[in-house]
TrEMBL record:
Coiled coil: none annotated. Belongs to the thioredoxin family. DsbE subfamily. SUPFAM superfamilies: Thioredoxin-like. It comes from Luteimonas cucumeris. Signal peptide: none annotated. Gene3D superfamilies: Glutaredoxin. This is Cytochrome c biogenesis protein CcmG/thiol:disulfide interchange protein DsbE. Residues 37-179 form the Thioredoxin domain. It is found in: Cell inner membrane. GO terms for biological process: cytochrome complex assembly. Keywords: Cytochrome c-type biogenesis, Disulfide bond, Redox-active center. NCBIfam families: dsbE (TIGR00385). GO terms for molecular function: disulfide oxidoreductase activity. It is a single-pass membrane protein.
Amino acid sequence: MNMKRWLPLIVFALLAVLLAAGVWLSRNPNRDALPSPLIGKPAPAFDLPVLHDPGQRVSLKKLRGAPFVMNVWGSWCAECRVEHPVLTRFAESKRVRVIGYNWKDEREDALRWLEQFGNPFFVVVTDVEGKTAIDWGIYGAPETFLVDADGIIRWKHVGALTDTVVQQELLPALEKAEKKR
């Protein structure tokens, strides 16, 4: 038996097993596997233009005094479309201000997307270049943050919000943040 002939097949099989093991190990449904280092720390300062009126700006300083949920989205994001009805129902409860953070999107595309699917946001800020997103540790959309009245990040969710996530994670985090005041 000529081993040189089988060597590429053996190497390929080992790489396939290694890849399969990596995929299997990464299936952890617990999104806390990648916790944000910002939880419990002051939210990074920002001063961004308003999507609907770029002449106006919103800053973290202007939002302090009451908690808010900040949802990172883009018209190009398929999962943002999936979570939008959930986010809309949550925003309609008026429990807390929901701030839209439109990330790396063209203004016209974002406005058209909101026109088509509805605008549940108290206000939408826009970060076309994505510079502020770096400070927040944003690496994809959708992502959702809960910031308390003092400007401290209390909760973060990576991926699309579901009714279960809202009920079992976001609302308890909001209640806990409100009790700290």
